[in-house]
Amino acid sequence: MPLPLEGIRVIDITVVWAGPFASCILGDLGAEVIRVESIQRWDTLSRAPLSLEAVRAHRGELDPATKPWDLSRDWGTMGRNKKSMTVDLTRPEGREAFYRLVAKSDVFIENNSADVVRRLGISYDILSKHNPRLIMMSMPAFGNTGPYRHYRGYGANMEAVMGHALLRGYADRDPTHNSVVLFSDAVSGATGAFAVQAALYHRLRTGKGQFIDLAQAEAVAGTYSQAYMDYAMNRRVQHTIANRDPNRAPQGVYRCRGGDNWIAVSCGDDEEFRSLCDVMERPELKEDERFANLSRRYRNQDDLDSEISSWTADLDMFEAFHALQTAGVPSGPVQSAADVLDDPHLRERGVWQEVTTERTGKRLHLKPVLGKMSKTPLAIRSAPPTLGHDNAYIYKDVLGYSEEEYRWFIENDHAGETFIFDRDP
Amino acid sequence: MVSGAPPLDGVRVIDLTHYIAGPYCTKLLADYGADVIKIERPDGGDPARHLPPFWHDEPHLEGSGLFLHLNTNKKSLTLNLKTAPGRAVLLDLVRDANILVESFSPRVMPQLGLDYKVLEATNPHLVMVSLSNFGQTGPYRDYKMSEITLYAMGGTMQSTGEQDKEPVKLGLTVEQFFCGAMAASGVMGAFLGCALQGIGQHLDLSMYELMVGNQDRAFTALTTYQLTGDLLQRAGNAGATSFSPIYPVADGFVQFFALQRVWNRVCLMMDLPELVDDPRFANPAAPEAKETMNLILTNWLADRHKQEVMEQAQAVGLFCGALNTIEDVFKDPHLFARGFLADIDHPRTGTLKYPGAPFILSDSPWRAGRAPLLGEHTNEILREYLGYSEAKVALLRQQGTI
User: Fold this and answer.
1) For A383-395, what is each residue's pLDDT tens digit?
2) Which of B217, B232, B325 sits opposite A163 (nearest CB)?
3) Which residues of B touch A224 (CB under 8 A)?
4) HEC string of A227-285?
């Protein structure tokens, strides 16, 4: 049976994180995703090598023979179900090849600033002449219009502007301590994959392609719902309350046995709180005035926290997890990647698939998380390819260049398998 | 200017979700044109109606800001699915629906006699999506979840915060919204599988798995760990040496990105071009150079405002964002120019500004409609969609089915 997006071809020139995640989801669903890069420029983030040393050496005397970009954490994860092509869009012949590819594709995703796309001659007004059915999604930080349209920023920067930085982090330390998170990249990627599919459905009904302006800052803002609505309704400005939640108390993470191990516990109502007391074998807490209802528990949570911490201190975090969940108390261990890989639930659900590449050998890869479809289960159809791995297929089979023409593209540094290092990244 | 119909015009969705993740998924569908029928229990409706923030801080079924935001453009039908007549109404709706999304715990739909086999027999082209905590199978199937336990188990919380402190979650309930956005992508994938390839089917989504497959560190950490044995550290944000340092300014904070590499631009931002070639910074990675840079920058920032710093930094190509309060966000000139905050009217609250379109399509509009009152569309759906007689509707009402 065909996969949902089988027959849809996606061109992906996105950089860094959000864009590659969006195209990754489309590839998982069965689209043929062609990631287009130029060997003149190594995107050291979306193709971040495993060691920072390699990136530093990149500006010095890195031996290209080691091809560190093919041993990449991010590409090694997000490159699944994608093909890799190289072409230099700054030269006319490369641009011509790209136009050919556009004519044979359904979707084009990019996240450069508006100027870059215009300078390269690959803006929507030009590309839609080559393919009026094309759906182009542009996903810059702040969108394609407005005073910040040229602003540059990674997820943390745009989330700060949209308010998240002051809504998260410890309540007793100032926000300069905030960890760098990539939350907006994840949301923008997920939302972007939805946007492309909505436009595909629109095209199916109307025959028309269109342009999607996805400002990552705006795509993530809807997730701050309660804070925005509280301001809109009550002019209240919310600030971080760290691990607490006024609708759930107690709520927090509590240290368990053996080093940096923690269990998250969260009681949504009186019944869950009473079950927690029973599991801790502290029935008297159920009768304690300080904890009689949600608002009192929230107000007196410091007291409750120390009771819970003294109970968890000698427990293994998984032991605590199962005891609490069996009694109906929402809880979860703070897991590392190692814990996730060991998890018996995930194993029983069959979420892992063995993937082998020349550079990384055999490893377990998470199957597409949207993949538990009853009739067309999704899998990893191809491991992350090395740079330029699919050049011959794309130049010759998809674009229709002859062997001789393809050789010209190789000799002129369009099609290649190694980045050229004589330019600053 | 956008013309034409919204992209999902004419797509009918039966929405059996509640709280946050499921409703955010169906909100995306509804805001882009799908006809979403939200089925609510007659006694109290979606529990999110009972969650703050409330308009004027008064708890009220129609006054929850969270509910109002999550359920824009949907229609509300009250229906008691625990009764046979209630189930019959649902199956009548399934006959003409494209998509059914549900977020009950995995035991509920089979117990109600509404598992995929039954729905498929009624409508073989239906796409059914189940969004649950841990999925429809497996040893944790019936385990409970909340925002903090979801974040904890997914593998990301472990590296959020500082080493000497406890792991700390993100703000509010953002990961449940992330799961909703992922679910919307999954719903559309399965639905296009039907529209393009003619396949109706059931999709089993687990919030836990959506978190493990999350682009925010969790997913790549699995790769790194297997290739190098390294696990993520809870490194906080180590001041000036950080990847993405946050500095105090006169009225708050600003966040930059990888400053040492672009010291020349920092000098231009400060309008101190003579520092670009200053021999003290010949090796910007040297500790003394870093310290001096940091001192110069900190002093320059101390008496400037975050908005002006962001503007000056961006003017020279530096990645920079002001740490805005929500009040700042509502006054932001860029969001104002793009019309991001949408005016949405509602009988209880009047017109309020909501977070607007997460993306803009050139040829098909996003809709700025409001959330439904509890049961507001019960009559319309039964009479107009299903063609029930007035007497039949009256009977259902009398039985307490609707």
Assistant:
1) 999 999 999 999 9
2) B325
3) 171-172, 174, 326, 355
4) HHHHHHHHCCCCCCCCCCECCECCEEEEECCCCCCEEEEECCCHHHHHHHHHHCCCCHH
